[in-house]
Amino acid sequence: MLVVVPAHERADGVERLLTSLAGAVRVLVVDDASPDPGPLAAAAARHGADVLRLPVNLGPAGARNAGLAEARGRGATYVLFVDSDVVVTPDEVGRLRAAFVDPGLAVVAPGSGRWWRRARC
Length: 121
Fold this sequence. Notes:
By secondary structure, the protein is an alpha/beta fold. The chain contains four helices and six strands. A four-stranded parallel sheet has the order 3-2-1-4, sandwiched between helices. A hairpin with a 2-residue loop joins strand 5 and strand 6. Helix 1 packs parallel to helix 2. The longest helix is centred in the middle third of the chain and has 15 residues. The protein is globular and about 45 Å long. It starts with a strand and ends with a strand.
């Protein structure tokens, strides 16, 4: 699983997110053409995350799409999109991973009353 984090600036949020993940999963931070890429790059480096820097701002959806293309190129089987203002624990990532052993599973997304919900084909 590869976590893709689209971000335009917001190094503080990325720092919090990466700290919460505690190195439990590979992370790709997609820098959506931040005017000063240094703080995002430094936050990613402190946590061993990779950075994909976009030359122009594509907005959140464009940054997610660029991250997905990069994840596919790296052979990622599963991609978890997490915004830079979210905190996710290794336990939550583990629960998501466990959900994907179900061959009838189509998607896992935030749901009512718990962090994720299953959707069957």
